[in-house]
Specification:
The protein has 415 residues and is of the alpha/beta class. It is 41% helix and 14% strand. It contains 14 helices and 14 strands. The structure holds nicotinamide-adenine-dinucleotide. Residues 6-12, 29-32, 35, 78-81, 93, 96-97, 118-119, 151, 153, 155, 259-260 line the site of nicotinamide-adenine-dinucleotide.
């Protein structure tokens, strides 16, 4: 199929690469010309396993000219939906992308489906996207189709999860719109659920709410276990045998970060409050998550005075496998350390560059140099941290790196 993808970020770029590999003709649009240049040279602007290899093999047309979308059968909107200051979701990029697509629709003769892949709060596609598209003079449901096709990929294994999704959710304006997308996904081995647009939007936010709540809940139980001298990881193993609970997402530690869980929760809370419902559980999930990262600094203070001390951070990405530092727990930890007068040194295998734009005052160095600091905090569970020499060190571990237990002083955040 002829497919266009608007937004060459984690979601758009992975979708472009995977759909191109499956034999579709892909046009990738972005406003970031540098990013497009890299993609056109077969270079991945982001770190994701397998992605660079696929980009080197496939042919993707890259452009910042929306008129090149005119032959598309499906146009995916994959632009960012960051938080506004009040936690609500910013629709700035979605609105602009829809406006530019609307200009394409004005001159487009054939039917095509516009599919929103960006995460949005329920009602956005129908109340914001469709009216802008219809400003083209064309009618949704007649001249063009609309779907909401939430993305569930996981950064760090994005290609794998794009190709092997747990489910495909198609929120459709009408059967013809939904059928077009279902046809595109016909070779994927995953259950396909066709539903209304609003329901699809909510399924994505509800998924992230559940995942976030599960993490905060196991962290809270972990905090209690630490106080009672019980191993939370053994407790979690016992819990995981119950299929209603499941064994995934039970690693207690310093909580969740990334571009999705925190912002999507904030957006659902803001939307919920707008319609008169105060979502107390979701609010507490976020509050506990914010506090959890700073527990590491509290534990550190028990062993060392921060002012003038050199403190090492191992891991800056919000999780292993990615260079994404958006809402990484390392951010709030570094902020407090620097504010309290510590000298901070840090190491991450791939995320140093992104983190350095936020914290130029940190010294970025090798893991060996980080381990020479007065104390070390383990913030991301990169596998290579299982092979370092922690003997003689003070280590506060936020991610259960077993090898670090050999340290002279070792404290786990919940164990
Ligand atoms: N990152 C994830 O793991 C993930 C997973 C599921 C869903 N999502 C959702 O998908 C959406 C995209 O996330 P992301 O992480 O890929 O974002 P991102 O910030 O990595 O990428 C967004 C891209 O859109 C481009 N862009 C912005 N405005 C544009 C415009 N008018 N025209 C063309 N391009 C434009 C930006 O330059 C950028 O390259 C968000 O709504 C996010 O919540 C993300």
């Amino acid at each position: 199929m002829k497919i266009s993808i608007v937004g060459a970020g984690y979601v758009g770029l992975v979708a472009a690469a995977c759909l191109a590999r499956l034999g579709n003709k892909i046009t990738l649009v972005d406003i970031d010309k540098e990013r497009l240049k890299q993609v056109s040279q077969g270079v991945s602007p982001i770190h994701e396993p397998e992605l660079a290899e696929i980009l080197g093999q496939v042919d993707i047309e890259t452009t910042s000219d929306y008129q090149r979308l005119v032959d598309s059968e499906v146009i995916f909107i994959c632009v960012g939906t960051p938080s506004n200051d009040n936690g609500s979701m910013s629709l700035e990029h979605i609105v602009e992308a829809s406006r530019r697509i609307s200009e394409v629709l004005k001159v487009k003769r054939d039917y095509c489906v516009i599919a929103v892949k960006s995460t949005v709060v329920p009602g956005t596609t129908e109340n914001a996207v469709i009216p802008i598209l219809e400003a083209s003079g064309k009618k949704a449901g007649d001249d063009f189709g609309v779907c909401m096709d939430p993305e569930f990929l996981r950064e760090g294994k994005a290609v794998y999860y794009y190709m092997n999704p747990a489910r495909i959710i198609i929120g459709e304006l009408d059967p013809r719109s939904g059928h077009t997308l279902a046809n595109l996904y016909k070779d994927f081995k995953a259950p396909v659920m066709r539903t209304s647009i609003k329901t699809a939007e909510m399924i994505k936010l509800a998924s992230n709410s559940f995942l976030a709540a599960k993490i905060s809940l196991i962290n809270e139980i972990g905090n209690i276990c630490k106080a009672l001298d019980i191993d939370i990881y053994e407790v979690a193993k016992g819990l995981g045998y119950d299929e209603r609970i499941g064994s995934k997402f039970l690693n207690s530690g310093i909580g969740f970060g990334g571009s999705c869980l925190p912002k999507d929760l904030k957006a659902l809370i803001a939307r919920s409050r707008q319609v008169g419902y105060k979502p107390k559980i979701l609010e507490h999930v976020l509050k506990l998550n914010d506090k959890q990262a700073l527990r590491m600094v509290e534990l550190l203070r028990r062993h060392i005075s921060l002012k003038g001390a050199t403190i090492g951070i191992l891991g800056l990405a919000f999780k292993p496998g990615t260079d994404d530092v958006r809402e990484s727990r390392a951010i709030s930890i570094a902020e407090v350390l620097l504010k309290e007068g510590a000298i901070v040194k840090a190491y991450d295998p791939v995320a140093t560059q992104s983190f350095a734009t936020l914290f130029p005052e940190i010294e970025y160095t090798t893991p060996e140099e980080v381990l020479k600091c007065d104390a070390v905090l383990i913030v991301t569970e990169w596998e290579e941290f299982e092979h370092l020499d922690y003997r003689g060190k003070i280590v506060i571990d936020g991610r259960r790196i077993l090898k670090a237990k050999e340290a002279r002083i070792y404290e786990g955040v919940c164990w």
